[in-house]
Write a structure and sequence with these properties.
By secondary structure, this protein is an alpha/beta fold. Helix content is 38%, strand content 19%. The strands form six sheets. It has a six-stranded parallel β-sheet with strand order 6-5-10-9-8-7. A four-stranded antiparallel β-sheet has the order 4-2-18-19, with helices on one face. Strands 17-13-14-20 form a four-stranded mixed β-sheet. Strand 13 and strand 14 form a beta hairpin.
């Protein structure tokens, strides 16, 4: 995916799936009728229950390529049965959360609303996509179901059809303002933004909103040259005594368009982003994979490796742990480290090196280390307490603050290093040599 980082999301749905995974009679009969499975296997499925251990980075964690986000230790049949759901949840929601984060960063503190429900690929994509967008930092969603289920703000404005359903734009604005005087946001581009929309909006502000003792909240632009129109609308609102009335912009926005608009001096206070967010249009696929890296018999763990002519598809073998080094003075992340599960990370200094270019080395000092994964399931039982969506979003925002701006840059981000310990690097190369 384009960009320097990823916001991990989708863990809650994986936990719910594993807790409820079972095969009823209908499922068993369907599988039997395929004539591909033995009765022994079908009998096994009747009493199936996940019994393994799972570790995961928490939702909202900032992660990077080649890092183990979820580690599953279980009988191989159990591990394989959860593969597709695990990948579906992580790949979709991490994709949308990351896209949302990039759009929010591009907005430079201006609130972003997720407006993508009608452009999502299906209902679940809308619901879980808007959930992921909240993790990525948007202020709220137009998907009311998501807002209800996860206790987050439901946000939106009037529709063009509402304006069109009246005999005139003025009558539509007036009716809306009389119903919602304390929360009036008017969509001003249905006919003509400057010669009609903003004029009728100001008229209704003066005739309805102000006499009732309120102030208008905002006007929304959904078409045309948003930079030019926002500047002209801002001038009119200020001249008419409404400098506190915000301007919301929508219309196929993304992080690149928002950056361009702000560079042009657009007078936009908030953004509604739909299709390009909910489908992650610029990068519609997140390439998370699920690979076997070790087999365990009793106490012996044997590393496994997948080799490919494509170097990027070669898997780092072994039962591993993921660590992050932080600078004690700045609390900024320095680098991530993949190490074998039984390695001890020293507290005083550590020499890291680039796994692809091992001559590139750096001695880390005055740091503290954090293990990124936490245990979710132990012996098939959930031992992890799920945070609320609001708590996940707050955690994601704090996580992002631990990274330098160069890593979060929209274009040409600085490469953040994910290194291998010397023992793990030697194991990988030894297995490749074999």
């Amino acid at each position: 995916m384009t960009g320097g980082y990823v916001i991990f999301a989708g863990l809650e749905q994986i936990i719910q799936y594993i807790n409820n995974l079972h095969f009823d009679e209908d499922d068993i009969n369907y599988l039997r009728n395929l004539n591909k499975f033995s009765e022994e296997f079908l009998t096994y499925l009747k009493d199936f229950k996940f019994t393994g251990d799972i570790w995961s980075v928490p939702e909202g964690t900032v992660v990077f390529p080649n890092e183990p986000l979820i580690t599953v230790r279980a009988p191989i049949i159990e591990a394989q049965l959860i593969e597709t759901m695990l990948l579906t949840s992580i790949n979709h929601q991490s994709l949308i959360a990351t896209k949302a984060s990039r759009i929010v960063l591009a907005s430079h503190g201006r609130p972003v609303m997720e407006f993508g429900a009608r452009r999502a690929h299906n209902v679940d994509s809308s619901i879980f996509g808007s959930r992921a967008a909240i993790i990525g930092g948007v202020a709220g969603t137009s998907c009311v179901y998501t807002a209800k289920e996860y206790s987050v703000p439901a946000l939106g404005t009037m529709a063009h059809s509402f304006v069109q359903s009246f005999d005139s734009e003025y009558e539509a604005f007036k009716a809306y303002a009389e119903i919602y005087p304390s929360d009036t946001t008017l969509l001003i581009d249905t006919y003509d933004t400057l010669d009609s929309g903003i004029i009728n909006a100001v008229k209704v502000f003066n005739e309805v909103i102000v006499p009732k003792g309120f102030r208008p909240k905002a006007v929304r632009l959904d078409s045309g040259d948003l930079a030019y129109l926002s500047k002209k609308v801002r001038e009119i609102l200020d001249e008419e005594g409404f400098p506190d009335c915000r301007i919301i912009a929508s219309n196929s926005l993304d992080e690149y368009i928002i950056t361009a608009l702000l560079n042009e001096g657009a007078k936009i206070d908030s953004f509604g982003v739909g299709e390009n967010l909910i489908t992650a249009k610029s990068d519609p696929v997140f390439g998370g994979v699920y690979k076997l890296v070790a087999m365990q018999e009793e106490e012996k763990i044997s590393p496994k490796i997948k080799v490919s002519d494509n170097p990027s598809k070669i898997i780092t073998p072994g039962y591993k742990k993921l660590y992050r080094f932080y600078d004690k003075k700045t609390n900024k992340a320095l680098a991530d480290l993949l190490a074998l599960h039984d390695e001890v990370i020293p507290e005083n200094e550590y020499l890291i090196f680039d796994a692809e270019n091992p001559w590139k080395k750096k001695l880390l000092e005055n740091y503290y280390v954090k293990e990124l994964q936490t245990e979710i399931f132990k012996g098939g039982k959930q031992i992890y307490e799920l945070p609320t969506l609001k708590e996940i979003a707050e955690y994601a925002a704090k996580e992002l603050d631990t990274f330098w701006e160069e890593v979060k840059r929209i274009q040409n981000p600085h490469k953040y290093y994910v290194d291998l310990s010397e023992k793990l690097w030697e194991l990988k190369n030894h297995m490749l040599d074999k």
